[in-house]
Write a structure and sequence with these properties.
Blueprint: H1 8-20, H2 23-30, H3 34-48, E1 53-56, E2 59-62, H4 64-88, E3 95-101, H5 106-113, E4 124-130, H6 132-140, E5 146-149, E6 161-176, H7 177-184, E7 195-199, H8 204-215, E8 221-226, H9 229-237, E9 243-246, H10 250-257, E10 259-277, H11 284-291, E11 295-296
Parallel strand pairs: 3-4, 3-5, 6-11, 7-8
Antiparallel strand pairs: 1-2, 5-10, 6-9, 6-10
Helix pairs in contact: 1-2, 1-3, 1-4, 2-3
Length: 303
């Protein structure tokens, strides 16, 4: 079969059936009859010489050949969308859609992403924030080009996601200026009995902080646990307790939360990951970010 034999309309029908899970729902989505969709799907299977679906109860499941075809179809239609935008406006920048997990510090996001705006990439950057699972779902259906998060994606062959460690930062405990002097002397012993604001127990950083406290035989008074890092720092600004944050964010935290570092938690680091889908033609901005992986994104500043 040559490239001229492949009908991309048939490929669109297949893509709709794969996304909807049944011919009937795909037909409704395409505003066609189920018979028409079924006939065109059969034509595509004959052209490819492989069955693309197998019955699974009342739905259809992709075969191995179907999963391969869907992978190519996703990329073909995404490239077609980019082609349409590129041709309609030659001066328009190429879109780079990034999802930010709501625990990623804005300074980290800036340091990772700002190069996409500069030559030679000169992309049109689109950033959106959200929960981790929601962003991965958007990435899996190619609504996003990359997700920045504080944890890798779960291993799931169906999603076909790849996680890359792109940077890390040392963690310090910060205190509002009104509390700072009280806990600076004798660190880390000064943390014993101190009010402490911590990430939620399912946060990747929490286990490392708990281990550090146990190692130093410290028993602070935990007054709050948060899944949102910005909210945690806001309570720190309200003088409710010491709070952890990257040691290299001293200037930003001083400006936004009127807090200064009490001491660094030796051996405790926060890590950030770039998560992408497996593509045969990678997005150029995503490729550039991955090429710079492993750097110390937030170098610790002198006290």
């Amino acid at each position: 079969m040559g490239p001229d034999d492949l009908n991309f309309r048939h490929l669109l029908y297949f893509w709709a059936v794969a996304k909807e899970g049944s011919i009937a729902r795909a037909a409704e989505r395409l505003d066609l009859s189920a018979q028409a969709v079924s006939a065109q799907l059969g034509t595509l299977e004959r052209q490819l010489g492989q069955a693309l679906f197998a019955p699974q109860g009342r739905s259809l499941a992709l075969t191995d050949a179907g999963r391969t075809t869907l992978d190519y179809a996703d990329q073909i239609f995404q490239l077609g969308d980019r082609l349409r935008h590129a041709v309609s406006d030659r001066n328009a920048r190429q879109r780079f859609a990034v999802g930010l997990s709501d625990v990623v510090p804005k300074l980290v996001a800036f340091r990772v992403l700002h190069a996409a705006l500069d030559p030679p990439l000169a992309m049109r950057l689109e950033c959106s924030e959200g929960g981790f699972e929601h962003l991965l779902a958007e990435l899996a259906i190619n609504h996003l080009d990359l997700v920045l998060a504080d944890r890798p994606a779960p291993t799931d062959a169906h999603l076909k996601l790849q996680s890359h460690l792109i940077g890390k930062a040392s963690i310090a405990l910060y205190a509002h200026s009104a509390l700072h002097a009280r806990y600076t002397d004798g660190f880390p012993r000064s943390v014993n009995g101190a009010p402490l604001l911590l990430p939620a127990r399912n946060h990747p950083l929490r286990a490392d902080i708990d281990a550090w406290l146990q190692q130093h035989e410290l028993r602070p008074e935990v007054v709050g646990e948060f899944s949102d890092s910005a909210l945690l720092k806001t309570f720190g600004r309200g003088r409710y307790g010491l709070f952890p944050a990257p040691a290299g964010m001293q200037e930003e935290i001083a400006a936004q939360f009127d807090a200064r570092p009490v001491g660094t938690l030796a051996g405790v680091h926060e890590r950030w990951y770039a998560i992408v889908t497996r593509r045969r033609i990678p997005h150029p901005a995503a490729a550039a970010i991955l090429a710079a992986a492993g750097q110390e994104l937030l170098a610790e500043q002198p006290a």
